[in-house]
């Protein structure tokens, strides 16, 4: 499945933050995604990590005289990436050829200089000369991040359409705990994808249900299934990457919430139904990916049932969330359902626009295969759940 990074030219700026060790992983992951990647390091950054660990990096700027009034750079290491031309023994960078600049990590010093128009090294000069999108992964001590001067500088750059990811709250390299920790590489990559991906869902509201439901038998026992929630979360992430405003209604899952997506947590099918009814009217797309229990115990016993007395449970039907949405959808809304078996019947009965015929083997797995069914077509899909979600959105949009 084609990556949003494929064929893109990306410049990575590296500053002298404690999170610099993660920058090598970021560059490696980008290069695995078939993008052309070049690296610019500040001088202080080279004192912490060798440019060789990036396969080469630009670090110095010097005066090239009157070479078309453009900047030239000394090559400090080998394998600095494609698309960089040698010019009179120096290296010339065409600023505007890059599709994206990512600064990983970005220190308070770097943010302050760029916010105030200071171009005193290669990286800040590059940033100020560039007209494309810029992603900044902030990382610093909590006291520095909370300093009003830093917050004012961040606000300035946000107004100039810089994109920020993080920082997060957690344990810092200095031993303190608080806000300032650089976001995980997977999250930074997702924000970079969001900048580069087509915005065919921009302005749309997407509502996704995900995960299992727990139907309580007593205060400690419940009935559930093995759904991990990954499929629903993958649909949500892909919609978010493509510009949508996304909300997830999630049953009990043990996976991390995706980025800045709004997550409503529920336990049972009844709670999920109530949350869907509250949010359904406002959405443009509803993705019913949750593995909702069809039945629930007629009542929850207080405490713990003693096994010595045996166990007899009477079940009642849970509400039909997908059926209710089909009956209540308004003009222009699209519904994507999921089914294991009887998919075409459910497409018609539940008044879905599309239905994903899933396999039981996909439950709890990282990858698998499914069939996307519409009123006049069907298409077999396979791959990771993220790849399948991307393929479904391609067809739906």
| CATH architecture verdict of the largest domain | 3-Layer(aba) Sandwich
* Cα-based radius of gyration, to the nearest Å: 25 Å
The amount of helix comes to 25-40%
CATH superfamily of the largest domain: CoaB-like
How is the quaternary structure best described?
single chain
CATH class annotation of the largest domain = Alpha Beta
Mean pLDDT: 86
Output the strand order for the largest sheet.
16-15-12-17-20-21-22-23
Count the domains: 2
Task: Describe the protein's architecture and organization.
The chain folds into two domains: 9-196, Flavin prenyltransferase-like (Rossmann fold); 205-396, Rossmann fold (3-Layer(aba) Sandwich), CATH 3.40.50.10300. Strand 22 (367-374) and strand 23 form a beta hairpin. Helix 1 crosses helix 7 and helix 8 crosses helix 12. The strands form six sheets. An eight-stranded mixed sheet has the order 16-15-12-17-20-21-22-23, sandwiched between helices. With 397 residues, it is α/β, with parallel strands linked by helices. It is built from twelve helices and 23 strands. The two termini are 17 Å apart. It has helices spanning 20-32, 43-48, 108-115, 122-129, 142-146, 148-159, 185-196, 230-241, 269-279, 321-328, 343-349, 385-396; strands at residues 9-14, 36-41, 58-62, 72-75, 85-87, 90-92, 100-106, 134-138, 163-165, 168-171, 177-181, 205-210, 215-216, 222-223, 245-250, 262-265, 285-288, 295-297, 315-317, 334-339, 354-357, 367-374, 378-384.
